[in-house]
Amino acid sequence: MASILQVRPVTDAPAHLRASAKPQDPAFFQNPYPFYAERHATSPSFFWEEYGHWCFADFKTVSLLMRDKRFGRDILHVATREEIGLEPPKAHTADFDLTEKYSLLNLEAQAHTRLRTLVNRAFVSRQVEALRPRIRQLANDMIDKFEGQDSVDLIKAFAAPIPAIIIAEMIGLPAEMAPKLLEWSNRMVTMYMYNVTMDTELDANQAAKEFTEYLRGVIAERRKEPKADLLSHMLTSDRDGDVLIEDEVMSTAILLLNAGHEATVHTTGNGVKSILESGLDPKTLFATPEQTEKTVEECLRYDAPLHLFTRYTLGDDTELNGIPLRKGDVVGMMLGAANRDPVRFANPNTFDPFRTDGANVSFGAGIHFCIGAPLARIELQEAMSVLFERLPNLRIAEEPKYGDVYHFHGLTKLMVRWK
């Protein structure tokens, strides 16, 4: 999941490097790629007027920026709010802010390494490989429920529940809680929208409060009776007297639950849409494990689940692509645009699962590379393979629509038929 950074106004961007696109304009968030193509054709380093900060759209800069230690997700370890003009925390979002206080997405240096090391072992490739049979079982179970119908919303009936159940079970929560976890997550995600309203903030905060209250109850149970799950591991791990406090465990669990399904849901929906619109034969796209991997990677590149991720500039007198930056300035990495960079990819706007120049930055890079990437890739490979095996005549039943939550990029509904 992306996270919110406060932006200090920038007023000195030259006119020829400024660009405008309204994030809540349906013409934009339904198809942002023409805007990206224009940036590539003019200047991939540009000042986005609506967001009020510099953005970088080319593959090389985005890849490097993710690894550049001059930029970070946190700023308050090197500056005060007053020093760089950040607003004080809002009282009415205190519960939401608590869920982000110890988030791996926001921590830097030793604090990040400490938490990531603790949970990383659950997400390494050899661990998640063992989940392939469970993912295939869930995919078949979901299809069994709707196969007799004439049509279905694939997001609600297939894409959303599978990763939610998998990550819940890994952490140690019952599969039947998945619908409620999805509801809380979807309400919290609205905080990342452009131009958030007070009502949105209040509802997201209420969802965060309900989420944390539920988790605190489960944490209390695990303290009394640990199990073989990630939550128990976080509670009982002791490295030379270093143990996690309850807020750290709670914040990490919420991040893993939210991030553990969000990108996979979007990529499944976006990917199925891309495949069906391409006219390619799905049998050839999932014919072998190797080709299945290439197909999933192309889905991640062609229509990424996250399009904008931000960093703070950590020091004064910093320069990036000739643009001077001050401590506290926010910079945006345009992941969806970088994945369509014509300098990096041949025919970047063509969905081509057989391409030989495949790559993407959809999972990030550097210390904040998505910890759940191995799991997400396996979920996508198995679930999409089963889907097209079971429903070879799958086709789109009505025009798909993307949600108004830029910089997340995912379908709100994908109505399909197969008979």
What does this protein look like?
There is one protein chain. By secondary structure, the chain is α+β, with helices and mostly antiparallel strands. It has one domain (15-417): Cytochrome p450 (Orthogonal Bundle). Helix content is 47%, strand content 10%. It contains 18 helices and 13 strands. It has helices spanning 26-29, 33-41, 59-65, 81-84, 94-101, 109-120, 125-128, 132-146, 154-159, 161-171, 178-189, 198-224, 230-236, 246-278, 282-285, 289-302, 335-338, 373-390; strands at 18-19, 45-48, 53-56, 71-72, 151-153, 308-313, 318-320, 323-325, 330-334, 395-396, 401-402, 411-413, 415-417. It has a 6-stranded mixed β-sheet. A 3-stranded antiparallel β-sheet has the order 5-13-10. A hairpin with an 8-residue loop joins strand 11 (401-402) and strand 12.
Radius of gyration: 21 Å
- What number is the mean pLDDT? 90
**Strand fraction:** 5-15%
Task: Fill in the CATH topology.
Answer: Cytochrome p450
Structural class: alpha+beta
Quantity of strands, as a count: 13
- For the record, the CATH architecture stands as Orthogonal Bundle
Structural domain tally: 1
Oligomer: single chain
Give me the number of helical elements.
18
| Distance between the amino and carboxyl termini | 36 Å
What is the helix fraction of residues, given as a range? 40-55%
Low-confidence stretches: none
Question: Any idea of the CATH class?
Answer: Mainly Alpha
| Morphology call | globular
